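_Per-residue structure_
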Amino acid sequence: MTISNTSVPDSLEDHPILANAYSAYVSRKQVLLESGPRVAACGIYNAGKSSLLNTLAGQFGEGAEAFKTGAARVTSTVSELEVAGVTLVDMPGVDGATDDDETAWQGMLGGDCYLYVHRLMAAEFEQSELEFLGLLKEQVRGLESRLVLVISQIDEVGDPEEAARREAAIRTAFTAAVGFEPRWTFAVSAARYKKGHVEGKAGLINISGIPELKNWVSQLPETSANVDWRTFRADRLRTEKDALTAQILAIADELDLQIQVRTAARQKRLQSFEAAVAALVQNVSGSLKRIDSAE
């Protein structure tokens, strides 16, 4: 769908702030109408977000990565890549610098669905994670049907029983932080998937958990997808439109007040003028009467 008229109304030309807000809203609406779902990966530094997204995008290996990975913190800005109608979004770790946190937060609010990535080895959640998830719950409408728990790097724990205990602990901590049990949980290993892909070992690919997550993501553009992201987008646009309308009404009220003030001032001046004219007429009439009486 394309918006037929994107020009700023003439009535807003004298109000640059409103004109800019109007243009931003129309541009944003056009983007949201034309683009597919946005899936944002979030989590603390070294949770494996970038590696996961590279795997989902099918771009991994030396020189082929779409999202930067490394031992040091390398993701400090929001980066994205469209794959088969889905935009994958990589964000800074929620435990990074203050500027990184702000960047990550803005990226989150622009997402349709969220992959919260947490390492299996780190069964406990850090305070920064708990705070981030709490804010996410407050700020994102319908989070329960938009947030996916991804337990990453499961290859780091070889004992199945230990892995199960850690996964249960992660789910419990996650549920406590957001106030609901995750509707979808995927336990994955990007390392196993890559190794299986490079060496042609289907077994490694199958036990990596990546195919199930890729399938979930790939179904999002379909109208029958489990996540009704289009409805949430419509709600987001409605909220932005209401905010813009409120701005316009506020300006209209201000202009109306100015008109009333000016009208009152004009009316006062008119009354003063009328009084002056009346006084003049009375004065002239008095003078004429005196002249007449002198005759």
About this structure: The mean pLDDT is 81.
